Amino acid sequence: MTNVTHFQKTENTSFRKSFHVWTGETSLKLNGIDWKITTMKRHGGVIVSNAQKVQGNRDGSFMYSPFTDKSISLLSVTKMATEAAIKAAHLEALAKFDELNEAGELPTAKDVYEIKRGQLLRFEGYGHDMAIKYVVYDVDTTGNWGTHYKCVDIKQKDFHTVQYLKPVSEKFGIGTYYKEGEIMPEEELNNLVIDVAQIIKDRKATEKKQQEEKDNTTREAIERGKEVITAIPEGVKAVIVANLMEDDSDIMTDYFAFHSTKTIYLAFSTHTRDLFEEMKKAALNCVDTIHLAEGEENREKYSGGHGYYLGEKYSGWQVSKANISFNGNYGVTLEALQLAAGEGRYFIPALTKTEKANSTEVPAGSVHIIDYSDRAVAVIGDTKPIKDKLKELGGRFNFRLTCGAGWIFPKTKLDILKRELL
Q1: Which residues pair with 260 in a beta bridge?
Q2: What percent of the chain has pLDDT over 90?
Q3: What are 71's strand-pairing partners?
Q4: N or C, which end of the chain has less CB nearby within 10 Å?
Q5: What 3-state class would DSSP assign to 83?
Q6: Average pLDDT over all residues of the chain
Q7: Do 49 and 71 contact (CB within 8 A), yes or no?
Q8: Would strands 367-373 and 376-381 be described as parallel, antiparallel, or unpaired?
């Protein structure tokens, strides 16, 4: 066989048996290019040999792109894939590879464009369309995992490392590409590296200051929250929460996702069962979630599901139950509740159901307007004769209120209600 230098530390050629199938492999460097030659059985009883251009690493591993790195079919024969047959076919494939090399039909390193400092790189992806994005300021070939091109991100003013590069002529989908001869002048590159290094330094200093301010604000909010809730009430095992969801989906790419932009706490629970009646009752404690007292019930307790919740999955308010965290376990912690209380996101009633019901008794034949929560009022009593007016004013009737059946309104409607009803 042609005199070659192996890019791995082990022997050039090996044969092994896996899953009851024999495979022959040869790793070599020829004309400055790394190759992996493999002989194995395919479907239909066919033994095939293939030479794949790869990028060999110091530790013996290799990488390649199945779409752009050259691949050569050397042999295809139908026979039993015994150990002897695989070895014979592999040796025949190596001989074929030699013939191609002697005929000058294999690429050589001199045909490969060398990426050096100053090379401009183009990026194909959303919003880029092969625009110049990076410039190489260093080429690292000392690692075990191939060549790493250290770059300056010209657009984002940041440092970045790229490993897989292809010429523009071999463009195939999203990726980083180069065009021969597109080089940034050395002086311009030096100034860019210095400027970006300073930008990153200033950016980190600003982020550190902002984080410190955020931490201080959080500590102050927790201290305020301690005045509202000093401990998890005895017997409480869970809390009803509401999350304001924002849709991150991209229909064009068939991507579906969402995240929570705000979390509020509505009620404590002495059990961990998911009961929709309990969630609907808790939803009445905040004006933002009142509408979910009649919201859609979603049951998704399966792999990949979202559990039991009221509301829409991808956007808007969503009410569900979360466990209380004890001793650092998963769930809602006391500190999280105190932070929410300090930031105005805590709507758990301070009074028990019995206490609130006793404080809102209404004489027969009359209606009263009472404070229901920090952000809501309720109209209770003999409301049937004026139900149309209450509905016209934007109220929602609910018989599950802690003060008894009644109509719930946001507190901003208080003056209008007094003027219309009292």
Answers
A1: 245
A2: 51
A3: 52
A4: C
A5: helix
A6: 86
A7: no
A8: antiparallel
